[in-house]
Amino acid sequence: MIKHLQDTITLNNNVKMPGFGLGVYKVEDGETVIDAVSSALSVGYRLIDTAGFYDNEEGVGKAINESGIPRDEIFVTSKVWNDNQGYESTLQAFDESLKKLNLDYMDLYLIHWPVSGKFKETWRAMEKLYQEGRVRAIGVSNFHVHHLQELLKDAEVTPAVNQIEFHPHLTQDDVLNFCKENQIQMQAWSPLKKGRIFEDPQLVEIANKYNKTVPQVILRWDIQKGVATIPKTINKNRMVENAHIFDFELTSEEVEQITNMNKNERTGSNPDDF
Fold first, then answer.
1. What 3-state class would DSSP assign to 141?
2. Which end of the chain is more exposed for a tag (fewer CB within 10 A), N or C?
3. Active site residue: 25, 45, 54, 105, which one?
4. With contact defined as beta carbons under 8 Å apart, do 70 and 101 qualify?
5. Which of 214, 267, 265, 263 has the alpha carbon at shortest distance from 241?
6. Euclidean distance between the first and final Cα of the chain, in Å?
7. SS3 193
């Protein structure tokens, strides 16, 4: 379990990934995303998660390159979008992302969604990128257990990460258990359910007990569940607040209580219908 903001999790290929980072989904390219990433890095964040689909890789790269922080201290994730899946088009999409980021290599590259009939070819391309050393780790996003099982049948490289929607109303225990059994690190997107969970009386009660906010309780729960997490915000004060979760610990009963709040409610699409 990570103990501070820059603490890392060792992935199944021995690459070290920060357990806590910043997501930049829907953050506008240009000054908005540059300011957000610059703020996060100044606060002490060392993992930045973007994607080809977010259309803000240029700004993310600019902020990283202008930060003055050594490149090997920042962990950069991007993802191949659905339209670009397939072998050749994935290789091309990776090149485009790397060029926009203005980086020599990527730390983690993910398949954004399991496009039926395509994700195996996409994975083959990602294995090539990995074997060539152009990306330090490869993984998937929004994969259910059956997608992972299908991928693993032919994969030469086991995904290092599966990034999925995960919060107290969508705990996806089957996916978490499968990932743990197969040494795939799970990472949570939308960990705060886009704020739609902040008034929950159970969470408010736990937050009051520790003199913390509900978001802090949820993010602490992620960490104690062994799930890496990338809450999104462009507000520097919120970044500080989100990261201030390493000075308290939930009891095992509280972790269980929050897990039992599951309603299988998504804010995003179901990968089976997407």
1. strand
2. N
3. 54
4. no
5. 214
6. 33
7. helix
* Distance (Å) of CA 118 to CA 74, 77, 82: 31, 21, 9
Q: Minimal CA–CA distance to 110: which of 172, 51, 187?
A: 51
pLDDT at 274: 77
Q: Which helix (H) or strand (E) holds 165?
A: strand 161-165
The pair of three-digit structure tokens given for residue 174, joined into one six-digit string: 């089957």
Helix residue spans in 119-172 (DSSP H): 119-131, 145-154
Is 54 considered catalytic here? yes
The confidence score (pLDDT) of residue 210 equals 98
* Residue 273 C-beta-side C-alpha neighbours within 13 Å: 4
Q: What is the pTM of this model?
A: 0.97
Structural domains of the chain, with CATH: 8-195+226-236 (3.20.20.100)
β-strands 8-10, 16-18 pairing: antiparallel
pLDDT along the chain (274 residues), means of 10: 97 98 94 97 98 95 98 98 96 98 98 96 98 98 98 98 98 98 98 95 98 98 98 96 98 98 96 88
DSSP bridge partners of 111: 80, 140
Which residue type, as a one-letter code, is found at position 9?
I
